[in-house]
Write a structure and sequence with these properties.
Blueprint: H1 8-16, H2 18-27, H3 40-50, H4 55-66, H5 77-82, H6 85-91, H7 95-109, H8 116-119, H9 124-131, H10 139-148, H11 161-170, H12 179-185, H13 193-213
Length: 214
């Protein structure tokens, strides 16, 4: 459900930060809706597919990949490991991404990557520490999982270009802020930094659309 103006997250942000409050008024309700039905394995596999690719290209690769496993909404880790690497390569995955997928599957089977039930018992930093052990998975990728799959309320992905660019626009900075600067300022948004991040993304999106019109 959208977060309206009287939601605790929105109300808190507007109270502690008048600039963020104005942005919230301009953008409207927060429409962030986590995809909670995806397992950590599926979410990370999809994230690996999208790395360094446009959305349409990644979606095409994923469709061809999933067609290798008929009858399955998404393959299990053991099925991925059993699949011929050449077939996965023909679906469009590069060799480094195939190695990352196989490492993800192996670490899911050995318990490094937790199950959906187990991951809900871990705090954010514990999840980041465990999942970044997977080849090709960095902190930013895990932060996206925390936001868009687990719905964690206090995630601020300061390495994300959109978040930093949105911050630059909203707070009238002449240059791009560093991750440390956004992190330091964002302390006032706790414990709802995920919602603040969503609004910064919207600010960046609005600016991009405005530039296209000019």
């Amino acid at each position: 459900m959208p977060l309206s103006g009287n939601h605790p997250a929105v109300a808190h942000l507007a109270t502690v930060d008048p600039v963020m409050g104005r942005l919230i008024e301009e953008v409207g309700p927060c429409l962030l809706k986590p995809k909670v039905r995806r397992s950590p394995f599926e979410s990370l596999a999809r994230a690996i597919a999208y790395q360094q690719l446009h959305d349409k290209a990644a979606e095409s690769i994923l469709r061809r990949f999933m067609a290798l496993f008929p009858g399955r909404r998404f393959p299990r880790p053991d099925q991925l490991l059993a699949m011929n690497m050449g077939a996965i390569r023909q679906a469009g995955f590069s060799r480094p991404k195939i190695m990352a997928l196989r490492d993800l599957a192996s670490k899911t089977l050995d318990g490094t990557v937790p199950t959906s039930r187990m991951i809900n018992t871990l705090d954010d930093e514990a999840i980041i520490e465990r999942l970044t052990e997977v080849r090709g998975v960095g902190r930013w990728t895990v932060e996206m999982l925390l936001i868009f799959q687990l719905g964690r309320p206090d995630v601020l992905p300061v390495d994300d270009f959109g978040v930093r660019n949105g911050f630059r626009i909203v707070y009238g900075r002449h240059s791009m802020p560093t991750p440390a600067q956004v992190l330091r300022y964002g302390r006032c948004w706790k414990p709802y930094r995920t919602t603040a991040s969503w609004y910064l993304w919207r600010a960046a999106d609005r600016n991009k659309q405005a530039m296209k019109v000019l």
